[in-house]
Amino acid sequence: MQITDANQLLDLGENEFVGELPKMTNSQINFTGKNNILVCEEGVHLWNSRIDFNLDNSVLYLSESCYDYSVNIALHKNNTCFIGKNNFFNGRTTFVLSEAKNIILGDNCFISYNVVFRTSDGHCIYHADKKDRLNYARSIYVGDHVWFGQNAMVFKGSKIGSGAIIGAGSVVSNRTVKSNTTEAGAPLRLIHEDTFWTPHSNHGWGEEEIEKMSKSDSDLFVYSPDENTLDLDGLESDLNGLEDPGDVVEYLWSTFLIADKNRFAIR
Fold this sequence. Notes:
Layout: E1 2-3, E2 16-19, E3 23-25, E4 28-31, E5 37-40, E6 45-47, E7 50-53, E8 59-62, E9 71-75, E10 80-83, E11 88-89, E12 93-97, E13 102-105, E14 110-111, E15 116-118, E16 140-142, E17 147-148, E18 153-154, E19 159-160, E20 165-166, E21 171-172, E22 176-177, E23 182-184, E24 189-192, H1 207-212, H2 232-240, H3 245-255
Parallel strand pairs: 2-5, 3-6, 4-7, 5-8, 7-9, 8-10, 9-12, 10-13, 11-14, 12-15, 13-16, 14-17, 15-18, 16-19, 17-20, 18-21, 19-22, 20-23
Antiparallel strand pairs: 1-4, 23-24
């Protein structure tokens, strides 16, 4: 079933829509499988986007946003994709979820052009002698207020703490990136520790603005683990233990929607 008008979401047959109907501009949502759930909060605008539920039992949760969603999302079987509030997609961002793994993206991230997130390589690689598989899929967890530079690629097993910066053209694969660090490169390497970034655009600045913003005393974007920080390994175990997509939605509501600043802090 191909959805090009949001009103079609009210009659999905073997699939389910929950929440407020999104605004859709030059966008489509395709349901090939069954028992999938799409959740949209109020204020979701899909712009030049494509979402594919290719198989069964997956959940996609799109939170409210003051920005347009410009995304290409492919879910397969038993996947969960949660996208938090007010993420800025500067050009279409690709999410590919495979092998019953998950992608969690926090709030207020800035994602530049042509950024890709993938939980699997898409094909199996085996040891030539032992015949054991070498490249199992793994989930991806991204915190709040993370900045991804142009053409960055985030692969299976990556955990990126709140406040981190991933440089343009970087490859993040099976890597834990601590909060308030700057990492870049392929392979990824640490550039700076104890950094934070602000959402002000500096494209049009002159000397006066540059001088004014030469220092910031704010701790608003500095993150440290505390008693409210989530256990990502525990979350992964919980999500993988839920077989019914409806239970997954309930879990997302009760877990990821907490507003604590340090929920995704990594040190």
